[in-house]
């Protein structure tokens, strides 16, 4: 069995908590190098996880290391440059979200992947999650009738509060990042994963917590000014044909009891239980109103994975490797990511102009 050589770019929270530990369970992958602009962190992480090589930047990594797949888990603002360099060097790529900050940048990355004949997979992972797949199946089967509304809950209490952090989280609150790019991307990806490309977007937003305090790790107690970008959003989408959607997203919910996704149709409702999760959810619940068979009620929860199998974020890598080996499209297409970035980029204009605006991309 061929083992594909993987390098990780960006040794922060997501790399250390998710990808490096989970990669051991991806049998066709072998982590050969870690890399970070902060070379000391790359070295520390290499030692901590017994990774053979470490590097201090993308140029050094590409120049000195032999590998097949790059996982870009660096800060949001760094993704476009890293991704372009990796694709041009002929590396298959999985990039953390958002993969770029504009539609044009994503198109540039898609073209670079085509030119180099490499596979390109774009976070977030929602499209290949078993629970999202189950919801798509239920909608496509017609079990809930014509879809009339999608509701998504994609908020938490902020990166300085919600997750353990040893790297300074100040960058999350600066232009190029922010709640919309960090969390809105999840909500919009989930909504479009179940309903396909939207036609129009509107949005209401506020700066609700202009100062924050880091609550864990090496920067515990540090005050962060968070008044440059909104941290609290209500996004509305229109798919046409009587189907609309609403997504709450941001950094202003310390806790919540709202389920992450609910789809309403003319004959029922389907819900993914629990708060936003990227891996294994709490199950899918279906309400069916079918007078023909005299059924009206909830069925819960529907099994979405085999009993002995847990879905993890790093399965994006298994999906990418399968696409490379079978020469097929990845399950997480950059075209879907481009549509999400189209929505992300249109939202600030919709807020400023206080109106609903058209979208120009599909997937
Ligand atoms: N999918 C998810 O659930 C999820 C969750 C959290 C974060 N993320 C995403 O993962 C990425 C990283 O987030 P994080 O929470 O790990 O952040 P982090 O701040 O903990 O780590 C980011 C790391 O990238 C490094 N870095 C910055 N610029 C770089 C460059 N030019 N070259 C190499 N390294 C560079 C930093 O030094 C830091 O070590 C972001 O895109 C974020 O949106 C995804």
UniProtKB/TrEMBL annotation:
Keywords, in A-Z order: Oxidoreductase
GO molecular function, one term: oxidoreductase activity
Protein's UniProt keywords contain Protein biosynthesis: no
InterPro entries named among the record's database cross-references: Gfo/Idh/MocA-like_OxRdtase_N, Gfo/Idh/MocA_oxidrdct_glycsds, GFO_IDH_MocA-like_dom, NAD(P)-bd_dom_sf
Pfam families: GFO_IDH_MocA, GFO_IDH_MocA_C3
Domain Gfo/Idh/MocA-like oxidoreductase N-terminal: 5-121
Database matches in Gene3D superfamilies: Dihydrodipicolinate Reductase, domain 2 (3.30.360.10), NAD(P)-binding Rossmann-like Domain (3.40.50.720)
Residue span(s) of domain GFO/IDH/MocA-like oxidoreductase: 132-270
Protein name as it appears in the record: Oxidoreductase
Organism from which the protein derives: Mediterraneibacter butyricigenes
């Amino acid at each position: 069995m061929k083992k594909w050589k993987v390098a990780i770019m960006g040794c922060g929270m997501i790399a250390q908590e998710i990808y490096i530990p989970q990669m051991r369970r991806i049998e066709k992958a072998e982590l050969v190098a870690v890399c970070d602009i902060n070379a000391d962190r790359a070295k520390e992480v290499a030692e901590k996880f017994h990774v053979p090589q470490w590097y201090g930047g993308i140029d050094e990594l590409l120049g000195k290391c032999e590998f097949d797949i790059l996982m870009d888990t660096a800060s949001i603002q760094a993704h476009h440059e890293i991704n372009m360099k990796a694709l041009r060097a002929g590396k298959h790529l999985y990039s953390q979200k958002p993969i770029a900050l504009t539609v044009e940048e994503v198109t540039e990355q898609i073209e670079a992947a085509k030119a180099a004949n490499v596979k390109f997979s774009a976070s977030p992972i929602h499209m290949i999650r078993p629970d999202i797949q189950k919801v798509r199946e239920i909608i496509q089967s017609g079990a809930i009738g014509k879809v009339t509304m999608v509701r998504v809950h994609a908020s938490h209490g902020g990166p300085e509060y919600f997750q353990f952090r040893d790297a300074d989280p100040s960058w999350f609150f600066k232009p190029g990042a922010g709640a919309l790019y960090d969390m809105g991307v999840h909500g919009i990806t989930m909504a479009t994963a179940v309903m396909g490309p939207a036609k129009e977007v509107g949005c209401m937003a506020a700066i609700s917590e202009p100062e924050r305090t880091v609550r864990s790790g090496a920067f515990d107690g540090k005050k962060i000014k968070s008044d440059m970008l909104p941290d609290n959003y209500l996004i509305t989408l229109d798919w046409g044909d009587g189907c609309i959607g609403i997504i709450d997203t941001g950094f202003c919910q310390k806790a919540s009891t709202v389920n992450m996704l609910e789809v309403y149709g003319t004959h029922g409702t389907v819900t993914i239980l629990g708060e936003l999760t990227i891996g294994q959810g709490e199950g899918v619940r279906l309400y069916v109103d079918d007078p023909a068979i005299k059924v009206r009620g909830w069925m819960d929860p529907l099994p979405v994975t085999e009993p002995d199998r847990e879905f993890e974020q790093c399965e994006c890598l298994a999906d990418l490797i399968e696409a490379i080996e079978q020469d097929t499209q990845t399950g997480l297409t950059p075209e879907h990511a481009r549509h999400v970035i189209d929505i992300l980029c249109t939202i600030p204009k919709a807020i400023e102009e206080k109106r609903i605006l058209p979208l120009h991309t599909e997937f």
